[in-house]
Amino acid sequence: MSLTTPALATVTAGEPVTAQGWNAIVNGLTALYEAVIALGGATLDVSVSRATTGGTEPVPDAVVVAEPLGEGRPVRALPPFGTRTTFLLVGLTDGPWRIHVQAEGMSAQAKDVTLPSADPVTITLTADGVVVPDLFGVSLQGALDQVRALGIDADIVLDTTGREVSRTAVPAEYVDAPVLLQLPSAGTVVPTGTGRVRLAVASALRRDPVVTMPSIIGLTLAEAQQALESIGLHLGTTDLRDAGPAA
């Protein structure tokens, strides 16, 4: 209930307090007690976690609100602080309450509880979508296979030089290129079927064929040309000079 200021009578020294004035004081104190009692003094711990492949992990950025199933106002919980790992609801009154919990990327959960209760409330959230896997170091083809299996599309793939790499027909030189960066990061929840991820991979190394240069000293021009063409080389511009008289 809300507090209102009663109409209190003022008196001077030596004058008696009238019955009307005394009743106003009593009514005001009664209203004060009722308002303080309505604020409630009960507390409740709420543990919030999310399901993972290895078990569960805390969700410290969740929003926890207690809604009274009757008269009263909703109460928002204090997030974990200090050494506390649970959310703290304070100022609750005895009776039925509904605890609402929500967090980004998670399905909202609700749980009914009746106070007084000394037992903490435990709520486990589930992902409202698909969790992006950790792709660092995974080959490009392997990373694409992983995200596609989860219903996530790779909308762009770049190498470290900024060159775009085809994600539908991965070039042979990029098939085993490791992923160096991903957006969004691992653990992010994206919508099922419409999630997108961007990848940056190592640049492909280009190897040009090499040959061993034979010695063509002492050969005629025609012999030198034939020797070079036999190993895949072509004779370029030539400069003919007179070697001068033999010594």
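Next protein, fold it too.
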Amino acid sequence: MNSETDVTSSWPAYARRVIERAVSAADTRSVPPPANATQSHGGAFVTLRKFRHLRGCMGTLNPEESLADAVRQAAVSAALHDPRFPAVTAGELADLRIEVSVLSAPWPMGHLAELELGRHGILIRRQNKRGLFLPQVATEHRLDKETFLSRCCSEKAGLPADAWRDVDTEVLLFTADVYAEDE
């Protein structure tokens, strides 16, 4: 987690302005990005919570696009296109707490001992299926390593729960700088 105050407030504030424009069907590209929008990344996710309950979480894993574009795309997707929830309405905006996770480039997990819960997120891929859990998922849901991997396989990647043990399944680790609005 990053503790720099100016940076911590800029990404969630940017995501909020993007979401405000998106729910009113306005152009989200006109929102100016934060000053640190040029930092390198492995992707970005935006998590929305309403009264501490998940209200949306979507992201992108394209390090080729600018971080501002990645956060903008993730914010719009989390607010309007998360298939688990109806689209966010203007009336909900004041009740939302926004969290932006800026991902590092992923690397292969050699063995289970490398996975540090709360520090590492996981990306599981096999053929055309993939699933991802942000680092905070393990601690928020009090998951052990094997359950973290198994649930990502079954709940996110649509694979058998033990697919992470299969040599044909790629398990990647990443870290995330998490920037959250104050509660």
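About the second fold: The first helix runs from residue 5 to 23.
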